[in-house]
C-alpha cells in the first residue's frame, strides 16, 4: 500500500469517527438476538460504536433495550432497526428510542427507511446511519438526510442488501463527485489491516458483525461462537436457505447440512428459542440465529458469518478484540510509512 493512500485513509478515519461521535471509526452491526445491551455497551466503552438490535421488538421491549444499554455505558451507542421486517413495529420502535434516549444516539437502519422515519430521527437530534447495498441506494440514503451510510459487500455475513463486492461499491462512490457523506464499509473487515485497506479504498470507517459474535459479551449460543473460532472464510457460503421470517434476501452463513444439501431439506422443527419473552419453535430454514436461549440442533440454524471470520481466534472480551485491532491498525500505518503525527484516530497512536 502506498504511503499516500494510507495517509489519506487515516485522515478519512478521523472524519468517520467524528461523524459518529466515537474514537475509533468502527460500527458494531446490529444483529437480531445477538447484539444485546451487554455487547453494545462493551463496544462503546472500548471506543467504537456499539449497537443494540431492536429487530422485531415491540415498543415495550425496544424501550427496555435502550434503557438497559444506556445504564451500562456513559458513551454514545446505536440502535439498529430493520424496516423490511419490523413492518408495523417500526414506528413503535422509534417512539421508544425517542422517548428513552438520554443522549445523542445513532439510529442504524438496515436498508432504506421511510422518509417520515428519517425526518423524525433528524428532528429529534439523533444521527441517522443507513445501510445500503448499491450506489443507487446510497444516493437515496443521502437524499433521505442520512448523516452517514454503510455500504455492504457480498463478503459480509448476514443478509445482503445487494450483489456487489465491497471494493466495487467503494470505487463507485469514490468516483461520484456528488456524493459527500461519510461511508462505512461492511464486508470482511476483521483486523486493523483490513480497516486500513477499506479506508485507503475510500471508506471513512467500517461496520463489523462477525468479529463481535464470538465475543464474551455476545448473546450468541456457545456452539455458534465455537464454530466461528474454528472457521475459515471458505467455511462460509452465500445461500437463500434461511428465509423463513425474512424472505427475499440471500445471506452469508457458515456451511452446514442445510446449505450443502443439493436440494432444500424437508421442513422440520430443529430447535426452540425465546423471542420477546416467549418460547418459540425454530423450523429448519428459519432466519433466527442461534442465541444463548436456543436449544436443539443449533448447527442447522442460521449461523451468520462473513469472510472476516478468519480473524477470530478465540472467545474474548470486546475490549481485548478492539485493543488488538487498534494495535494492528497502528502497525499497518507504520508499515505503510505513515508518520506518527498523521495517524488518526486517537486509538491508532
TrEMBL record:
InterPro entries: Aldolase_TIM (IPR013785), NMO (IPR004136)
Keywords carried by this UniProt record: Flavoprotein, FMN, Monooxygenase, Oxidoreductase
Gene Ontology MF: a single term: nitronate monooxygenase activity
PANTHER family in UniProt: 2-NITROPROPANE DIOXYGENASE, 2-NITROPROPANE DIOXYGENASE-LIKE PROTEIN
The protein, known as: Nitronate monooxygenase
Species in which this protein is naturally found: Kitasatospora cineracea
